Amino acid sequence: MGKSTGFMEYARELPVDREPLERMKDWKEFHTHWDDASQRQQGARCMDCGVPFCHMGLLIKGAASGCPINNLIPEWNDLIYKGLWEEALARLQKTNNFPEFTGRVCPAPCEGSCTVGMHDPQVTIKANECYIIDKAFDEGWVKPVVPAVLSGKRVAVVGSGPAGLACADQLNRVGHEVTVYERADRPGGLLMYGIPNMKLDKSVVLRRVKLMEESGIRFITGVEIGRDILTETLREEYDAVVLCGGATKPRDLPIEGRNLNGIYFAVDFLRGNTKSLLDENKMNAVGNSRAGAAKSVPVTAEGKHVIVIGGGDTGTDCVGTSIRHGAISVNQIEIMPRPSEVRSATNPWPQWPFVLKTDYGQEEAIALTGSDPRTWLTTAKRFVGDKDGNVKEVHTVSVNWEKDATGRLIPAEVPGSEKIWPAELVLLAMGFLGPEDTALTSAGIARDARSNVSAEYGTFTTNLKGVFAAGDMRRGQSLVVWAINEGRAAARECDAFLMGTSYLP
Question: What is the structure's pLDDT at 228?
Answer without folding.
Answer: 97
